[in-house]
């Protein structure tokens, strides 16, 4: 059996704050393989971004307390700073929701992409030269090559007229084009793993669909493994092969998208699905998920979802919930599963948002 590209096992990341310790990631385990897109789905505050940052070892001021992050044979939790630097920006690239986290407003976009190409090439050349004991010298043609490669990358990301856009500045790009440029930078190093944290959240639906399509072609054409962080069930359903449903920093349910999102077994996944269906009904008032995520202060020696779940029993609040495997791919952490199949509404109706209780359901 070949090992997975990324294997996160029992990961704990916490923040020590004035209010106490925030257990942002609380024992999460999942994998991402080459050529697959794995979604991390959950409401705001469920620990998605901290999980993503922890994998890149950018968790500060958080601290990884326990767990392993095996990436292509290296445990990133114990790797040296220089190994991490080497892996980040070469083998692992990250894309954030906000392109301004990546793009510098005072340099032309094309130059920034070319720079990413050059850094990557200098890195691989430097490794060879280090090995041979020869110092790196700059050759003139390197820049021209990097520019050519930048044009190519922009073209691959469907940025129209890349040649003429090379010298344009970020503010001259639309939001969608900026995010494409960020993807081009992320791909300049030919990464094995791409971590994308809500990459399309700020974009309109058409642009969003285009970018998600780009991610799928990266998976298919370059065999890249992709971890796609999203709070949007539709995005995950459209794009991912497998999904990890996160709540309170714990994996509630994980498995193939077509199983988990069509026949969810965990009350939390069912609730997400139900809210998503409701929110997309035309004319109906958009309603947020009932209840609010519990305060992640204090580690969960219980199910983090128990207070919002109408199936919860005393046992759910008293002990750590073990993970059960429905089959080799599909697993969940719920003491009450299997739930009745026709029980569409898994969450407590009385836990609705303040004005939600006054809703008239008779229409
Ligand atoms: N620097 C920090 N200091 C203290 N707590 C933090 C810090 N960063 C994140 N947290 C906490 O960790 C928990 C998980 O946050 P995270 O950003 O991972 O959520 P998320 O699932 O990405 O949410 P969103 O969808 O809003 O981006 C939250 O309770 C958050 O308040
Ligand atoms: Ni986030």
From TrEMBL:
The keyword Hydrolase does not apply. GO terms for biological process: peptide transport. Residues 343-363 are annotated as: Disordered. InterPro entries: AAA+_ATPase, ABC_Ni/Peptide_Import, ABC_transporter-like_ATP-bd, Oligopep_ABC_C, P-loop_NTPase. It is an enzyme of class 7 (translocase). Keywords: ATP-binding, Cell membrane, Ion transport, Membrane, Nucleotide-binding, Translocase, Transport. It is a peripheral membrane protein. GO terms for cellular component: plasma membrane. GO terms for molecular function: ABC-type nickel transporter activity; ATP binding; ATP hydrolysis activity. It is found in: Cell membrane. It catalyses: Ni(2+)(out) + ATP + H2O = Ni(2+)(in) + ADP + phosphate + H(+). Its EC number is 7.2.2.11. The complex is composed of two ATP-binding proteins (NikD and NikE), two transmembrane proteins (NikB and NikC) and a solute-binding protein (NikA). This is Nickel import system ATP-binding protein NikD. It comes from Natronococcus jeotgali DSM 18795.
């Amino acid at each position: 059996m070949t090992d997975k590209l990324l294997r996160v096992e029992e990961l704990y990341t916490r923040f020590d704050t004035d209010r106490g310790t925030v257990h942002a990631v609380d024992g999460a385990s999942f994998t991402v393989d080459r050529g697959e897109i794995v979604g991390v789905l959950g409401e705001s505050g469920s620990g998605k971004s901290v999980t993503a940052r922890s994998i890149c070892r950018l968790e500060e001021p958080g601290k990884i307390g326990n767990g392993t992050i095996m990436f292509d044979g290296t445990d990133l939790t114990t790797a040296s700073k220089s190994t991490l630097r080497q892996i980040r920006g070469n083998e692992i690239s990250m894309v954030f929701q906000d392109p301004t986290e990546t793009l510098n407003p005072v340099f032309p976009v094309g130059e920034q992409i070319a720079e990413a190409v050059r850094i990557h090439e200098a890195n691989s050349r430097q490794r060879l030269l280090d090995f041979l004991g020869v110092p790196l010298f700059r050759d003139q043609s390197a820049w021209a090559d990097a520019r050519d490669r930048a044009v190519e990358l922009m073209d691959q990301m469907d940025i129209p007229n890349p040649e003429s856009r090379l010298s344009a500045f970020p503010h001259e790009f639309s939001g969608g084009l900026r995010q494409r440029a960020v993807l081009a930078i992320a791909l300049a190093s030919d990464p094995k793993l791409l971590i994308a944290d809500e990459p399309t959240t700020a974009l309109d639906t058409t642009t969003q669909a285009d970018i998600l399509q780009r991610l799928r072609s990266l998976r298919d054409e370059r065999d890249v493994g992709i971890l796609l962080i999203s709070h949007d069930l539709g995005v995950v359903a459209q794009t991912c092969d497998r999904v990890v449903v996160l709540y309170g920093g714990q994996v509630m349910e994980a498995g193939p998208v077509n199983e988990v999102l069509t026949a969810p077994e965990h009350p939390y996944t069912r609730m997400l699905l139900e809210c998503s269906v409701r929110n997309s009904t035309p004319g109906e008032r958009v309603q947020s998920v009932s209840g609010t995520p519990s305060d992640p202060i204090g580690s969960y020696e219980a199910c983090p979802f128990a207070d919002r779940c109408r199936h919860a029993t005393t046992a759910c609040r008293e002990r750590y919930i073990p993970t059960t495997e429905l089959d080799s791919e599909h697993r969940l952490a719920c003491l009450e599963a299997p739930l009745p199949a026709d029980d569409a509404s898994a969450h407590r109706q009385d836990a609705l948002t303040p004005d939600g209780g006054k809703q008239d359901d008779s229409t």
